[in-house]
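Late entry, adenosine monophosphate complex.
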Amino acid sequence: MLIDLHCHSTCSDGSLTPAELVKAAEKRNIDMLSITDHDNMDAYFGLPLVSPVKIIKGVEFSTTWNKCVIHILGLNMSDQCMQLQHVINKQKDARVQRAKVISKRLNRCGLIGGYETISTYKKSWQIGRPDFAQLLVKQGIFKDVQSAFKKILGRGKIGDVKSQWLSLTKIIQAIHSAGGFAILAHPLTYQFTNTKLKRFLYDFTALGGDGIEVINGYQNSDKTAYLIKLSQEFRLKASIGSDFHHNSAWSQLGCTTDHIKNQIDPIWNYF
Ligand code: AMP
Ligand code: MN
Ligand code: MN
Ligand code: MN
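Prediction complete; structure with ligand written out below:
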């Protein structure tokens, strides 16, 4: 089976529209796809309902735990749930406020009126750090997106503005009230020690967290084995996804399940 429960469209920081993502998934014979944009489910408005690909409604929420930013996927949710809509609106406000603060801070790096400039061409209200990185490159201030992140937008840099994301408790509750599953995204990107990651998983499961991504994009087999072990230890369901944003040699839609399916409790069996 080919499964992809984590990817991004133009409704956040991806470069394909939701319909183009579904078409690409059809071409690659993917069995199941979830478009999980950052803090919104706009991708599901007007998406073609008839497709050989099974579409699972999802989102990738930003939240904080012990002052660390954590990403939580909500999978298989109804987008009609009032509590979920309320949470999405709050996260949207937090993003807009944060984008304005990032914009002001980047004045010091020679980027004037960044927020206003991005707003003129960005179709989605979702303005995040990648938009600022791309604009910095367009204006010749940095040579590429990676350098912009490395120098000013990455963790702890001037453009890494802390935001008032809703708490982990509220995010998990909203996902559950919409009938969905809460999954820890890319567990190895937070640069936690093994002990800290386990402390997080202890809190996460106590709050009702349901699962953990055991594959996120291209990943070596040691990492996959470690994440599968954690999923077993904490009795968490396992999810997999490409975290696809743009077409490149390094990122393709779809993950195979054959080599891991006997060691995990697959989240997709519950959809
Ligand atoms: P935001 O949600 O606005 O904080 O932006 C986070 C997004 O920025 C992530 O989902 C990635 O798509 C992208 N990102 C984070 N770190 C990097 C990096 N070092 N280089 C390129 N893109 C990055
Ligand atoms: Mn992203
Ligand atoms: Mn993420
Ligand atoms: Mn993502």
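The CA atoms of residues 144 and 267 lie 37 Å apart. Will revisit in the morning.
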